[in-house]
Amino acid sequence: MGRIAPVSKSELAQRRRLLLRRRRRVAAIGLWQLLAPVAMAAGLAWATTLPGWVIRRPEQVAISGNEFLSPQAVRSMLPLEYPQFLLQVRPKLVAQQLESMGPLTKAKVIRQLFPPGLSVEVEERYPVAVAEIPGTTKEATGGEKGRTAELGFLDSLGVWTPQERYTSLVGIGALPTLKVIGNPVNYRPYWPVLYSAISRSSVRVYEIDWRDVANVILKSDIGTVHLGASIDRFPRQIAALERMKELPKQVNPTQIVYIDLKNPDAPTLQMTNAQKKQPKQ
Prior knowledge:
This protein is of the alpha+beta class. 31% of the residues lie in helices and 26% in strands. It has 8 helices and 17 strands. It has helices spanning 9-48, 71-76, 91-99, 164-167, 184-187, 191-200, 234-243, 247-250, and strands spanning 54-55, 61-64, 84-85, 104-112, 117-124, 129-133, 137-139, 145-147, 150-154, 160-162, 179-181, 205-209, 216-220, 223-228, 256-260, 268-271, 276-277. The strands form 4 sheets. A 10-stranded mixed β-sheet has the order 10-9-6-11-12-13-14-15-16-17. A 3-stranded mixed β-sheet has the order 2-5-4. A two-stranded antiparallel ribbon has the order 1-3. Helix 6 (191-200) packs parallel to helix 7. The longest helix has 40 residues, at 9-48. The radius of gyration is 35 Å and the shape is elongated. The chain starts with 8 loop residues before the first helix and ends with a strand. 21% of the residues are buried.
């Protein structure tokens, strides 16, 4: 067995110094890896508070995806005060607040650093009908009792939004002329089917009375129409109404009380003389 060569004290000291340097270098690298992200975050935070990285005007918010609402209308719903530091804007929270407003179903908010601003992409809740909810009896001015109705708008799915959520905005499209009377809670499950049918019909329907769920009543260009309550018949009933669009040329409209379409295969006319008449289709 060979003998291990002796190591001098100077060599041992040199090895210790090399080992100590290596450990210090490793520690320095580890400390830098730990502090670098913190330093970068602090630097970014400081940079975003500089005067150049501030949203000073609503016009620095770019709006996309809107058709019914103007960019100005969407910007007016933003829960922001100007000037606003970019880092203080919480995109997810801003998006959630926009979606809770009513006119918007979805919103996505992204910070833009160059140039400083926000990008807001939206999906709108397009109003297709004015919805009137009959009010409860309240004490009116002068001690008299009266009934006040609550007004709002419906989308194609039957979601109700208070009227002021739209009318308080500047720069919106034409509001719908179709009117629905009744409580949306009662008719919302059936609304998409009926609205889909009347929106495709060549006979204009301008009012739907849904106060009595057992008999839905339409007001149309060719007269008042009673549909009954069967949702399964709504498309066939509107199709039958469309086939009767020449009715005002065949019968004096002033003599028709209403068109009975409860059975779309055998519609009848309720006349002013209390007799029923089978119309031509």
